[in-house]
Amino acid sequence: MSEYDLRSFGWAPGGYTGRKCVDCLETLWMVDKRAWRCQPCALKRYEEHAKVIDAPMICDYDEQTGRIG
Ligand SMILES: [Zn+2]
Q1: For residue 15, what is the enclosing H or E element?
Q2: What is the extent of the structural domain holding 64?
Q3: Into how many domains does the chain fold?
Q4: Tens of pLDDT along 30-43?
């Protein structure tokens, strides 16, 4: 997982502050000017997406931590 992966889910580092995350409505700090989610929310979306893509392969997805393996 890289910053590039989170970029497509709404978060990337940058120099912009003040916009709000569309999911949790927290103020975004030092994000890319096109960011629309905070890092935790983008990561959550990324993991949900990865879960869907990898679903047939998963046998040990942890519901509590949201982590695989
Ligand atoms: Zn958020």
Answers
A1: strand 13-16
A2: 3-68
A3: 1
A4: 999 999 999 999 99
